[in-house]
Design brief:
By secondary structure, this protein is mainly β. The chain is 0% helix and 59% strand. The protein has no helices and 14 strands. Strands 1-4-13-6-7-8-9 form a 7-stranded antiparallel sheet, with no helix packed on it. It has a 7-stranded antiparallel sheet with strand order 2-3-14-5-10-11-12, with no helix packed on it. A hairpin with a 2-residue loop joins β11 and β12. The protein starts with 12 loop residues before the first strand and ends with a strand.
Amino acid sequence: YEGYALDAVPENISFNPDLGGASITQDPQNPENQVLEITHPNTASPSFLVSYDFPETGGLVAVEMDILPTATNAAIYAPYIRTGSTEIVSINVNNNGYISYNNGTTVVPCKTYTANTWVRIKVVLDLNSQQYALYADGILLQSGLVPRAATETVDNVCVGMYWANAGSYYVDNLRIKAIS
């Protein structure tokens, strides 16, 4: 997010400002770096989602991002990969201290994380075989996972916070890549 003014909202994202906020700020661990801060101010409001729209993509898609959770007691959406408003892949940095995936009926914990430590989350989604793999910091956590809904294409990635949690966290280096 270098090149954006502090407190700016990047032009390629959308969200409901009544439910939370998303703006450029300094990295709390490296003030020379700019990051996107996601904030959800109260637990009385619905879940807060920030959507990154991109051209409809099929085949093999990789979504990668760095996140800095500020606590281990808030459920963070990072990332949700969607087609329209339909969730295809749901990755959570959960309020139980785990990076987890949603298999459609259950949130399944994979790896612990530490508050105030950057973690790189990567999802490689194969829309041809309807499977995906989940990585954290370059380590394969799970493969052969089945998306929550079958689809031939995806067109947006969401980050955000669960409705019952107030707080903030940081996102950097979001990359969405079609792999040929």
